[in-house]
Amino acid sequence: MSLILILDDRGTNRKILAQLAVSVEPSAEVVTFGNPLLALAWMDGHQPDLVISDYRMPHLDGAEVAGRIRAKATGADVPIIVVTAYNDPVFRLRALEAGATDFLVSPVDHAEFRTRVRNLLALRRHQLQARRQVQALARDLEASERSRHALLRESRESLAQLIDTVPAMISATDRAGKLIFVNARQATIAGSTPAELVGHGALRILGQARLERGLAADAEVFASGLPMAGFEEELSDGQGGSRTLLTTKAPLRDGEGRVTAVVTTSIDITDRKRAEEQLLYLARHDALTGLPNRSMLGERLRDRCAQGRQDGRQPPRPGGRRGEAAFALHILDLDRFKAVNDALGHEAGDRMLRDVAARLTEAVGPDHLVARLGGDEFAILQAEIGAAQEAAQLALRVQEALERPFTVLGRSVQVAVSIGVALFPGDATSAEELLRHADLAMSRAKSEGGKGYCFFDPAMDHAAREAMQLEADLRGALARGEFELRWQPQVCLSTGRIVGAEALLRWNHPERGLLAPGAFLGAAEETGLMTPITAWVLRAACRQGAAWARRPGGGVRVSANISPSLFRQADVRGMVAAALEEAGLAPATLDLELTERVPMDDLEKVAATLRELRELGVCLSIDDFGVGYSSLLYVKSFPVQRLKIDRSFVAELPGNAVDAAIVAGVVSLGRNLGMRVVAEGIETEAQLEAVRRLGCDEIQGFFVSHPITAAALERRLAGAEAPVPGT
Q: I need a surface site. Which of 314, 328, 421, 518 has the fewest CB within 10 A?
C-alpha cells in the first residue's frame, strides 16, 4: 500500500488531489497538509512514496518544499510532483533544480495527473523492491557463511532479473570499493556484462573522470549512514557527445543495521536537461526575433547598475556635468508599424520585426545588447560610454539603419523610429528607473512627431507623476460629484435673442480648483473614462434643458459635445435616448456637436449612428468646421443641421480677406444644403458685424458671454440682462 503526501493551502484542492490519487491506487493511504512546515515535521517520522505539492503556499513555495524534502533522510529519493499555475518557465526551473521530479500545470488535467502518479508510484515500487531484495540478500549472506557463495550466485541472478526492469543504471559497492552487483543497463553502458564486473573496482563502470567523486560520495554515505541527495554528472556517450545523469546513493544495511555497501542509482536525464535549457532560453529570449527579452535586459541592467555603484559612479550634483555617463539605455518604438500590420497582415509585420532586429544588431555591433521588449518596441543597452554625445551618435546610427526601405512580401515599406535615451548614473541608478525614464523620453520623442530621439529630462518624470495623480483623481471625480457645467449662450443674429446654450464641462478639483476640459479630457480618453463622463454631461445637460423648458418664457436649445472615440466604445443612441427620457426633454431641444476628429475607417459606423439619432429627433452640428481635412466629407456623409465655423477663421475679421472669403463660402454651402451656420469665437463688436454681413445665422463667443452658470444664464433668458452687450 502506497503512502501519498499532498501539500496545498486550499482545502478544496487537497480534497480533489486526494480523490484523484485514490482513483489511481484505491488502497493507497493519502495524508494531506495545508501548512508545508507541518508536513515537513511529519516527514521526520514517516517516509511517503510520493509527494504532491502546490507551488504557491504560505511560508514556503514549491521549490523550497522540494529542497527541504530532499535534505531529509525520509525524502532524499521520494518522487515529488509540483503543481503550478504559473506560465513562466522560470518557476518550473526553480522547482526542478530544487529536486522536484516532475510538475503539472494548474488546473490539473485529471487524465494526465493519473498517468504521472501511476508511473511514479510504479517506479517507486521498483526502487523499494530492489532495495529490499538487496538488503535481504545481504542478510542471507551474513547469516550463512557456508552458503555464501551459493547465495551470492542466486543474489546476482535475482538482483539482475529484478533491477534490470528499472530504467536506470544500478550498482552497489562495498567498503573496499569493489562492485558486489551491477545491473544489465549499467554493464552495457560500461561495455561489459554484470558477471565480468562484479568483484572488480568501480573504475570499470565509472571511468577515471568520475571515480574520485564516486568513491568520495560512497565514503560519505558509509560515514553518515544516510542517503545522499541526487547530484548531476556528465558522461561521455562514446560518440563525441555527452549524457547527463542524475545520481543518488543510499546505504545498504545488514541484519544488524550496519552499512555494508552503497547502492548507486543513475538515471539518464539528458532529454530533461535539454528541455530545461530550452525553457531557460525561452524565458530570456524573444521567440520571434531571437533577441534577449525584457527579462534578460532587466538582468543585464541590474548587473551593470550594481557594477557602476561598486565603481563609485554617483549621480551628478546640482549644477554638475550631466554629460558624463557609464552606459546608456535606449528605448525604441517604431513609428507607423501598425499601418504595416493593418495593410499587409501580421505575417508581414513579423517578418519586418525580424528584419528590424537584424538591422539593429548590425548597427550597434557586438559590444552592446539589443533586446525586444514586445510589439514594435526594442531596447539597446549601450555599454561603456564616456559622454551623452556617444549615445546621441548611436541613436542617429540606429535611425539611419531603420530609415532604409524594407522589402516585405515583395513590397517596399518604410518606417521611422522614436528613441528615448536615459543615462547611468546621471538619469537613474537602478534598472527600473532607467527603463521608466528611457520610456518617458521615447514618449516625448513620439509626441513631438516621431522620427527622432530625445534624452530624458527630470521634468518628464514630474509631468508623468502629475499625469498619474490626475488620472487617479479623475477616476473618483464622478463618484465624488466634482464635475459641473458652465453654459455659453448662442445668439440669433436676426432677432438678437439667445436661442441656444452650449454645455461646457468643468472639473472642480479639490486642490487645483476649476479645471477646463483641456486639462483632463486627454487623460479621460486614455483611461476609458470618456464614456461615463459623456453620459454624465448628457444627463446633466438634458436635466437643465428640461428645467429651462418649464420656465414661463420657454426654453432654449442645449448643445453638448460628443467625442469621436465614443462611437467605438459605447451605444451612443442608447445613451442619448436614456438621458432624454430621464430628463423629460424633447429630442429637438438637444443639439449634439460632433468634432472633426472621426477616424476615416469609422465613418460608416458613425454615419449610421447619427442617422439613428436624427430619427430620434435630436439635432446634429459639426463643431470646429473647416479645420479638418475631411470637413466636406462630413457634410456629405452625416445628417447634420448646423455648421459651427471654427474660431480660427473669425479671429482676424474683418481685416483678413481670406478668412472673410472662407466664412462666406461656408455660409453659402450651409444655405444651399439647408443648414444654419454659427460663428464661434466672437470677441469683438467688429467681428460680430463682419459675420453678420457675411450671412451667419448665429454667434457664440466672449463678446456674447464667457461661460456662465445655469442661474446666470437664466437671468439672461428672463431679460434681466441683454443677450449681447450693447443690444
A: 518
CATH top-level class of 3-108 = alpha beta
Query: Can you tell me the distance from the alpha carbon of 332 to that of 353, in angstroms, rounded to the nearest whole number?
Result: 12
Cβ atoms of 334 and 356 closer than 8 Å: yes
pLDDT for 357-387, tens place per residue?
999 999 999 999 999 999 999 999 998 888 8
| HSE value, Cβ hemisphere, 13 Å, CA-based, for 434 | 30
Which are the contacts of 345, defined by CB distance < 8 A and separation ≥ 6?
none
Residue 316 carries which DSSP code? P
Third-level CATH fold of 488-501+529-717: TIM Barrel (3.20.20)
Give pLDDT tens digits for 222-280. Answer: 999 999 888 888 877 667 777 888 889 999 998 888 999 999 988 888 888 888 888 88
Q: In the chain, which residues fall in CATH 3.30.450.20?
A: 143-273
Describe the strand order of the beta sheet including 179-182 as a list of residue ranges.
179-182, 169-174, 259-268, 242-253, 228-236
The CATH label, of 3.90.550.10, 1.10.730.10, 3.30.70.270, 3.40.50.1820, for the domain at 285-456 is 3.30.70.270
Taking the C-alpha atoms of residue 510 and residue 631, their distance in angstroms, rounded to an integer, is 39
Q: Is the pLDDT of residue 409 over 90?
A: no
Whole-angstrom distance, CA of residue 210 vs CA of residue 364: 45
d(CA 667, CA 660): 11
Could you give the CA distance from residue 577 to residue 129 in angstroms, rounded to a whole number?
79
Confidence of residue 474 (pLDDT cuts 50, 70, 90): confident
Rounded CA-CA distance 166/160 in Å is 10
Give the pLDDT band (50/70/90) at residue 439: very high
Q: What is the mean pLDDT of residues 556-560?
A: 95
Q: In the chain, where does the domain assigned CATH 3.30.70.270 lie?
A: 285-456
3-state secondary structure 158-200: HHHHHHCCCCCEEEEEECCCEEEEECHHHHHHCCCCHHHHCCC
Largest CA distance in the chain: 134
Model-level pTM? 0.53
CATH 3.40.50.2300-classified regions of the chain: 3-108
Q: Cell numbers of 570, please?
A: 459605447
DSSP state of 509: E
DSSP 708: B
The predicted-structure confidence for 208-219, as pLDDT tens digits, reads as follows: 778 888 888 889
Average pLDDT over residues 556-585: 90
Q: Domain 143-273, what architecture? A: 2-Layer Sandwich (3.30)
| pLDDT, average across residues 106-117 | 88
Euclidean distance between the first and final Cα of the chain, in Å? 103
Q: What is the CA radius of gyration of the chain?
A: 40
